[in-house]
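hey so i finaly got around to running the thing on Peroxidase from Canna indica. pasting the sequence first so u can double check i didnt mess up the copy paste, my clipboard has been acting weird all day
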Amino acid sequence: MAFRFQLPLFLLCMLVGAAHGQFLSPNFYGSSCPNLESIVRSEMTKAVAMDRRMGASILRLFFHDCFVNGCDASVLLDDAPPFVGEKTADPNRNSLRGYEVIDAIKASVEAACPATVSCADILALAAREGISQLGGPAWTVQLGRRDATAAANPSVANANLPFATDNLDKLISLFAGKGFSAQEMTALSGAHTVGLAQCDKFRRRIFGDADIDPGFADDLRKQNCPSFAPLDRQSPMQFDNLYYQNLVLKKGLLHSDQELFNGGSQDSVVMTYSMNNNAFRNDFAAAMEKMGRIRPLTGLSGEIRFKCNKVN
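ok and heres what it spat out for the 3d tokens, dont ask me to read them lol
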């Protein structure tokens, strides 16, 4: 009698675990779409060849998706009036880009494997491939996510995403809420070794911050705050650890970046990464794999969208 009672309970626990995304697998599409990763890699290779910045843009798109209600491709959804979604949140509006690249990948995947692969999984794979094209590390992408059928409203997105003006305590708290340690947060911040930032994200820093190299600030002020500036001036489209070396020199472009090296708890981590590129790459890859597991929809939750910008 005891055994017959425990078996249904065990199965119930398995189902509950599956509902919380514990059973993602890198081989989820092994039989249903065996060429998935090569399709994503081919499309991302073309996209980055046309615009190297796209590798950084797709990574940011993935990050902004996962930190708002989990890795569910909700950030890709267009507004459906009267509802306004994540695309118009303050950290996303006029700055997130690469939607058309994900749409192109989805079209190629649909041609090979109709109604099989989620946009959430495509975005996760594209983020890894984009960073690989810029010389970054590889990491295992767990697969089996499903797509959200609605986006969060802008206020929810605003509350879950970092701002360029955030201080260290705010950053640590925000990332802790997603299950990341302060060190993992500092490793993930290394994504800013590639890409550009808009003037409105660093204007206050170059005209008002004290913890900034005077020559660095003066140069940007002489340009009257350029429309775009590289987050890492030395190698803006190469994934490396120079971002951390810039922080040590007080040449972080964003206030939130420089907060990682400003007499606080992450100074030693920044110093380690600035001197040890392998340590940074390994920790970044591990943190990215962990980020991909934030609250995925699995099982019967959500759907497999036919187009990434709208629900079926």
